[in-house]
Amino acid sequence: MKTSTRKILDKSFSALALSSMAIMCAAAVAFLAPIIINGSGAVWFKATVEHFKFLREVLDRGSARELAAMTEKSDAAREKLYSLMRAYESPADFKKISGAIAAARRAAFAEAAKKSAEFVKILDENKGAASAPLIKKFGEGIFANYSGLVSDAAKSSSSPAMAEFLAGEKEALQSGARAVLEDFAKIRKLSVLEKGRVRRELPAAALENLGAASEKVSEDNAAYAAFKEGVWELLGPMTQADKEAAKMMRRKFGQTRMDVARKVLGESVLRIRVNSADSSGRQTSESVLVAERFKGTPLAEMAKCAEENFTAMMQPRNAFYWGFLFDSPYDSNIFGGIFPMILGTFYLTVGTMIFAAPLGIVAAIYFSEYAKNGRVVNFLRMCVGTLAGVPSIVFGLFGLAFLINTVKVSESKSVLAGSITLALLILPTIIRSCEEALKTVPNSYREAALGLGAGKWRAICTVILPAALPGMLTGIIISMGRAAGETAPIIFTAATSTGAAIALADVFTEATPALPWNIYNICSEHEMADKIEHVQYGMALTLIAIVLLLNSVAIVLRDRLQKKLRG
After folding, report:
1. Residue 433 C-beta-side C-alpha neighbours within 13 Å
2. Which helix (H) or strand (E) element contains residue 551?
3. C-beta separation of 474 from 378 below 8 A
4. Helix (H) or strand (E) holding 287
5. Are 161 and 224 in contact (CB under 8 A)?
6. Of 188, 212, 236, the domain-final residue
7. Are 519 and 534 in contact (CB under 8 A)?
8. In this structure, what DSSP letter does residue 495 have?
9. Do 556 and 413 fall within a single domain?
10. Is the residue at 471 inside a domain?
11. I need a surface site. Which of 73, 175, 191, 455 has the fewest CB within 10 A?
12. Domain membership flag for residue 136
């Protein structure tokens, strides 16, 4: 090969290697950057007054004086919104008002029916022009209570839909009065058997008005209920009684983070879901802007007040929540930290290495120092290679079927069962890495030890193993990192989605929360996954940090041992 050609090839391979490294670094940055940025946000973030309430009331942390000052400012801003909501809720319920009006209407018509004979007599005695004023006077007397009730209800109502209904009811009152009195005027022309019958129903137009108003009031009430639910999610309950009655912690506190609070404000307060009917008459749900859909109503005024006073209501402060790593979770990871998951991952990793490391080292010594090439050894090597390529979920199913259901190392999922399963998973990797590390030890070491009178086993223990230890530790610790990050095996054998940290004595019988499984569960199955993205990224960052820490330890140990061996 010509020198020029060789130089071109060398430069090409060098460029290819550098390009590959650059692509790998770019991919690593693209992968890790969002996890680091968002994951660090689980510890350092803009907190609301609800976060400090949670710390004080649940964990007994923080300054009571500082919290009192923040709460006072927050309550003053919230009172503006709460006063509007109380004013909307203060009038009598629509059903009560409409029920009372209907009862008064029935009473008015019943009274008219009872006095029909008296009215006929008055008409007979006052023929001609005098009958019209008398009809008016008589009608006003009969419907006085009804008219008064409608007027009082109109004054006390702040709901636009209710006001519209009451206005229509006044018109219906007048129309109904005229209709009834007209019936009275016709009584003289009826037969004797029909003289006691009067018209007791409102005109069709009045009934239609009542139905339309009822639907509109129902729509307003449903919209307000959705708005109130959003306010509750954002700020927590309006009253202390509601807070004490709430069973779930998410009902006792509002949003603890400003980023989540802004999302809730936009999705559940300024924009709400309302029911409507499509062209075919089917009921559908749609998300609408309160300011546009309910323009000119008290509901739009409430939404405007919530938007304008949002910052004052939440009282944001920069917070360093170190408890994310050391606190237990509350209410399905919505509050608190991830300590049980970290501890569970530690239990599983250490338990895995207790089983896998000794077996892997012994197997590697056998293959490297004792085994001779043959059918049995080749078969065993093939088995090890095959196990290395088996999907992890198969190991999980094996652990469930064999270790738990057949051997019954535990009654159900446990750390012990999960550790044994993970040990079987990483065992091929440990065997291969340890065997390769043993093969790197020069034969001169073995010959020198045997020449000095050491037996084979003593030579292995005193000379070969120390020389191979750097490479063996590297393989073992890297395998630890894989064990810490595995998900599929522990789903079937060891992990639970929720729960407190378990004691060391319970590892033989109890399942444990663990970072890999909880990351998956929160991302895919959690009912409020979009509200706790910081927990997802925080768990992922913690797991990556654990794996990187283990790999860093492996590198440091290898370098120190190599320097020690060199002398």
Report:
1. 22
2. helix 533-566
3. no
4. strand 283-289
5. no
6. 212
7. no
8. B
9. yes
10. yes
11. 191
12. yes
Structure tokens at 552: 């860093």
Distances (CA, A) of 124 to 47, 117, 137: 82, 11, 16
Last residue of a domain, one of 152, 183, 212: 212
Tell me the torsion sign for CA atoms 442, 447, 449, 455: positive
State how far the Cα of 70 lies from the Cα of 52, in Å rounded to an integer: 9
C-beta of residue 445 within 8 angstroms of C-beta of residue 464 = yes
Domain-located, residue 74: no
**CATH number of the domain bearing residue 372:** 1.10.3720.10
As a whole number of angstroms, the distance between CA 194 and CA 375 comes to: 115
Residue 132 tokens read as: 């019209």
Tally the domains of the chain: 2
Owner of token pair 């912690």: 249
Same domain as 206, residue 341 = no
Question: Can you tell me the distance from the alpha carbon of 162 to that of 107, in angstroms, rounded to the nearest whole number?
Answer: 22
195 plus 343 within the same structural domain: no
Token pair 């050491």: residue: 454
Q: How far is CA 274 from CA 38, 81, 211, 279, 511, in A?
A: 33, 21, 19, 16, 43
Nearest to 42 by CA among 239, 334, 269, 307: 334
Tens of pLDDT, residues 421-470: 999 999 999 999 998 888 888 888 888 888 877 788 888 888 888 888 88
Is 153 within 8 Å of 166 (Cβ atoms)?
Answer: yes
* Same domain (yes/no): 412, 557: yes
pLDDT bucket at 345, cuts 50 / 70 / 90: very high
* Angstrom distance (rounded) from CA 518 to CA 138: 78
Look at residue 296 and tell me whether its pLDDT is greater than 70.
Answer: yes
Q: What range does the domain containing 449 cover?
A: 335-566
Question: Is residue 225 situated within a structural domain?
Answer: no
State pLDDT tens for residues 71-110.
Answer: 999 999 999 999 988 877 765 555 565 566 666 666 666 6
CA distances from 478 to 94, 429, 485, 547 (A): 69, 9, 11, 8
